[in-house]
Description:
Strand content: 15-25%
Number of helices: 9
CATH superfamily of the largest domain: Glycosidases
Low-confidence stretches: 1-27
Structural class: alpha/beta
Oligomer: single chain
Strand order of the largest sheet: 1-2-3-4-7-8-11-12
Amino acid sequence: xxxxxxxxxxxxxxxxxxxxxxxxxxxxxxxxxxxxxxxxxxxxxxxxxxxxxxxxxxxxxxxxxxxxxxxxxxxxxxxxxxxxxxxxxxxxxxxxxxxxxxxxxxxxxxxxxxxxxxxxxxxxxxxxxxxxxxxxxxxxxxxxxxxxxxxxxxxxxxxxxxxxxxxxxxxxxxxxxxxxxxxxxxxxxxxxxxxxxxxxxxxxxxxxxxxxxxxxxxxxxxxxxxxxxxxxxxxxxxxxxxxxxxxxxxxxxxxxxxxxxxxxxxxxxxxxxxxxxxxxxxxxxxxxxxxxxxxxxxxxxxxxxxxxxxxxxxxxxxxxxxxxxxxxxxxxxxxxxxxxxxxxxxxxxxxxxxxxxxxxxxxxxxxxxxxxxxxxxxxxxxxxxxxxxxxxxxxxxxxxxxxxxxxxxxxxxxxxxxxxxxxxxxxxxxxxxxxxxxxxxxxxxxxxxxxxxxxxxxxxxxxxxxxxxxxxxxxxxxxxxxxxxxxxxxxxxxxx
Length: 496
């Protein structure tokens, strides 16, 4: 009887120890989130990384960037418009979606709006008809996006230089109805774009005068946001202050080398006068509003024939990818559709080649089979081996109180490398404030000089540096807002 009791005691002790160990490895392995945090739709939006912008309308035919609001609608007259050609080009260029300018500042509606006569049905365009028998560029785009698997978004300028009531409450009501029309009739949208350019001179129904508005309050942004949330809950809302994503503060397509996905929500508004701050965000921000880098493939946003020789090269576009997606932002590349109604052949070829270059640069992850060790780990579930397992939802984490740490990847033999990719597990927050990269060259560790400060990481950080031949690389986080949560590190050799 005593032997049985002893055996039972040992069995109980073993299982008690096992359960405690199991619980320890999993309970301690759950890092507490550090806010602000992204919504799931914001995470999915940032995973898109690159998507297209389309500026097309009366300005295309009047050779202007900002139409005054008085151009004859019949000026819009493409000779062989092909929306499917746009979308095929975007897909070949690696774009995951497209945002179309439904109405620019001139007030011309690219869909058969029943709220204004200044719309596509009054133009000379005689293209495919929608279900009501009317020409509708947005309906054509919706159909093409569905066919080729791209997401669709819309830009609706709050400023309207054509509308007689702009600057008064009647226009605000009109704008809300226009927005409701768009978010209820063109299927699911991934983003709704609210431009920060507001107020100034315009046609205004024939008044031809200058009008100013209160940027923060005139449009009733809470109402605008509620309309979008009600009908398109999955869409992120773009403006200087979000709330879904923010302007990066320039139109060069470049994010700051330090780039927080946070802003102080009560400070930033559409038309924010301190827009230079938006390139880096606010480390003390209270809302997750990641940056979007918008840039045109040409000098202008709309097509101008004299810019055919000024299209950004594939090399320039690749550089912008690294300075946007590679700096914790997204890359919104504008294509000015030409007067024929197509993405120009030069623009198309350069965009497709750009994508090929990025794919070639990042073709082989040299760390996928490398041996990895860490300075510390927060349980087996979040070991350093999660850094190169190719899975988004697994990550290396450090114990509570350890806001620094290092991981070392050993190649086993000298290996050429000139790119390093790092990603934080952003559903739990953005944490890293500073890090260093070292390479083992021969028998000595040497600092890798990336040519820019190695501060934030966020969703994705990609470093470029002169080719080195190393047998190991070491990444050391020297400062962070909390325990580390890094889900991916990769190294590459771009042979160009």
